[in-house]
Design goal:
This protein is of the alpha+beta class and 142 residues long. It contains three helices and six strands; from the N terminus they run ααββαββββ. The model has no long low-confidence stretch (mean pLDDT 97).
Length: 142
């Protein structure tokens, strides 16, 4: 399998995330160790304060994390996640989560994720996530 076909197969696998699709999240970028995901907040995604529910902010971050840590083609799962909620967002806001790999070891990897309001550029939350790689492959290394 050539590299282009391999990358396409990995992307197709990641794009099948049922929860991300249910929320309406779009995985816009998938490259080895990097992803970007967007989600427009709906009224149904707000809490009793009228702001975006923390679970939604966490979810868009987690979707970006999952895409980035599985982007190498090896199955990876969350080992540890730490998120800091910094500013509120509201219905109608388009949130963008960008995940970047900062460490890529044999069994573990580490990612910094920034979640921001696309219209204002304001950082809504930051997350640092650690993944564990299992001995399974989406697409084996060549």
């Amino acid at each position: 399998m050539d590299e282009k076909t391999r990358e396409k197969t990995i992307e197709e696998h990641i794009q099948k995330d049922a929860f991300a699709n249910h929320l309406g999240a779009r995985v816009e970028i998938i490259k080895p160790g990097h992803s970007r995901v967007s989600l427009t907040v709906t009224k149904n995604m707000t809490n009793f304060h009228g702001t975006t529910h923390g679970a939604i902010v966490f979810s868009v971050s987690d979707i970006a994390f999952a895409a980035a840590c599985n982007s190498h083609g090896r199955v990876a799962v969350a080992l540890n996640v730490s998120i800091a909620f910094l500013k509120p967002s509201y219905a109608g806001d388009r949130l963008v989560a960008e995940a970047k790999e900062v460490y890529n070891g044999n069994r573990t990897s580490l990612y910094d994720i920034v979640i921001y309001n696309d219209a204002t550029g304001e950082v809504i939350a930051k997350s640092q996530d650690q993944a564990y790689r299992v001995n399974q492959w989406i697409v084996p290394e060549q």
